[in-house]
Hints:
Layout: H1 4-32, H2 43-73, H3 79-101, E1 105-108, E2 111-113, H4 118-136, H5 145-163, H6 170-173, H7 176-210, H8 219-234, H9 247-257, H10 260-274, H11 277-281, H12 285-306, H13 309-315, H14 319-348, H15 357-390, H16 398-439
Antiparallel strand pairs: 1-2
Amino acid sequence: MNKKTHFSFLILGIISLKLGLLFGLLAGAQYMVPEFLKEIIPFSQMRELHVTMVISWIILTATGCIYYFISIDNKLAFPKLEKAHIIIFGLTGILILISILTNNMGGREYMTYNPLLFFPIIIGWLLFAINYYQTIIKKIVFGPVYLWMWMTGILFMIITYSEAHLWIFSFFKGDVIKDITVQWKSYGGIVGSWNMLIYGTAIYVMSKIKGDDRIAKGKIAFFFYFLGLTNLMFGWAHHTYIIPHKPWIRILAYGISMTEWIILGSMILNWRKSLNQKQKINSPAYKWLLSTDVWIFLNLVLALLISIPTINLFTHGTHITVAHSMGTTIGINSTILIAAIFYIVSKENKFSLNKYKKRLNIAFWLFHISLLVFWGSLLYSGYLKGIWDQMDMPKTSFSEFITDLKPVIHVLVSGGLFLFISIEFITNPLIKALINKSKK
């Protein structure tokens, strides 16, 4: 198989991660010193650059992994469509950056770039869907769960990403309740869709490290799949407590949204117990997947708490919500994707990373310690903001509050800086290995 295009997705994904962390670090610096780079890239644009690049890391890397994995045992149905896909996503990514940097933004939160860019993005997803379904169609019925998860993720990404742009029609835009409901329903669906892609990737890598596909064909795996599908379709409602829903909708959404991570966490734990020492030692992806379990636990506890309506009222709009999304995006999704890239690089040449072994081990611990400091700082600053919002009587001015918050922000940005450094140490050898394999 021609792996160059698969690796191009992975390389672009890693570059997006680097840029995302850089823009996030600069945004943190602006939070401390509002005048920093204000005339060049103001905070409103820096934040969008950060969010867009991190989402791009998730989408591009998951896509590249899926193309690579399905091409191992199958001949890709339309290799030219994959090349068209990477070209479309690459050029659209450049246009998104230009749109944000020139402040030509007309979209909604997390998709603030010019809404016309919806069209090339959805074309890319349609090409991906056609290629994927035609490649695996003969194996899907009795195939492992990851094939079903990838199929579902791609399909619902098309549906939910399209749904996220319904606001351009007056029927939705003209009604605040409809508008907010559809916006957050679609965003929850988009996250659920890429979770399908990422968690399917995790199960694939686990089954291949063990050398046994039964982990991906058992009842627990398919129970997890249907639970994830239910979460994708209905779990979004826990984001919309402020909308006048019926109480049963809130209760159902709360229950559903808490279950998915529990099953994934238990699967990783059981997988770990089933491996022998040789399988653990021979797989650099092993410890990254294992660390995912720690972040699943931490974020599950946080998610359980902030999904309680009373606590949600206190935390909504604070850095606690950001900690939840950051902990999930970096602690769970990114550790899975990094594990998948390590697996791919090792599969291509298991000795290619040996000379970086000590450096990668140090970077692994630096990554997790920095993320824990970063995550904890977000939680504490969010707690202080909640106190200021609802319990500080008589209320001090916002500028005074920000001044008092600065020591916490300094710790937050320091954690972000070391997180950025750790990612540099981790990803640079991976990029070199992928580029070298692309040339062959």
